[in-house]
Amino acid sequence: MKTNRRTAVAVILTAATILTACGDESTDNGSDVPSIPAQQWTPGTPPPSGSDPTRTPAPAATALPDLAAGVDRQDPDSVATAALTVWFTWNTAVDAGPNDAAARTAPLLTSDYAREITSTTAQSSPGAQWLDWAARGAVLTPDLVADDEPVPPQTDSTAYRSYRVTQRIDGAPVSERVVAMILRRGSGGWEVSRIQDK
User: Fold this and answer.
1) Is residue 74 left, alpha or beta, with left meaning phi > 0 and alpha meaning psi from -120 to 50?
2) pLDDT tens per residue, range 41-58
3) Full 3-state SS string of the chain
4) What CA–CA distance (Å, rounded) separates 186 from 34?
5) Which of 11, 10, 42 is nearest to 179 (CA)?
6) In 3D, which of 71, 96, 72 has the Cα closest to residue 86?
7) Within a 13 Å sphere around the CA of 122, how many CA atoms are in the beta-carbon half?
8) Average model confidence (pLDDT) for the chain?
9) 8 A C-beta contact, residue 68 and residue 104
């Protein structure tokens, strides 16, 4: 009886040792590089609790980049597509994160919204995907298609728009989202008062 118990204990200990060794191998991915979470911040939203207090937000642009030249401020569709084009054109070789592109959109935004998106900052790292793109100096450019989901009717002072945005690097899609917008008519024409993912 004692021999059977000793054998059983020996088998259990051997199995536990093997399982422990296998568990250690499965968790070792051969890399000491820490995992970096993707950025979970949208310009204009309150900064997450892990924000970096030493990093300052991107300043609001005072002039539009060339890619928004020719925007018709009297046409809400023209303003909407120009704003989204600037907002989602990311040059990872020079931008610290997506919030830099949002700040470049400021001339097409209401003053309150421009102030809101340039007074908050993102996490200290924009995420692993951004770092990968930046290592290649990638430039992301958007394709815009009007979304077919109904939006509230346009009035003399307010317009609602919804677009499917596909960001591409060298023609290959890398990101897709549906974006809702609110535009207000100001003294100088239409301005964007909100951009958010649906």
Assistant:
1) alpha
2) 455 554 444 444 445 778
3) CHHHHHHHHHHHHHHHHHHHHHHHHHHCCCCCCCCCCCCCCCCCCCCCCCECCCCCCCCCCCCCCHHHCCCCCCCHHHHHHHHHHHHCCEECCCCCCHHHHHHHCHHHECHHHHHHHCCCCCECCCCHHHHHHHHHCCEEEEEEEECCCCCCCCCCCEEEEEEEEEEEECCEEEEEEEEEEEEEEECCEEEEEEEEEC
4) 48
5) 42
6) 71
7) 22
8) 79
9) no
Instruction: Tell me what pLDDT residue 127 has.
Output: 86
d(CA 194, CA 164) in angstroms, rounded, equals 16
The answer to whether the beta carbons of residues 71 and 80 sit under 8 Å apart is no
Residue with tokens 């990311």: 90
pLDDT at position 133 over 70: yes
- 174 or 14: which leads in pLDDT: 174
Rounded-to-integer distance, Cα 84 and Cα 87, Å: 5
pTM (2 d.p.): 0.71
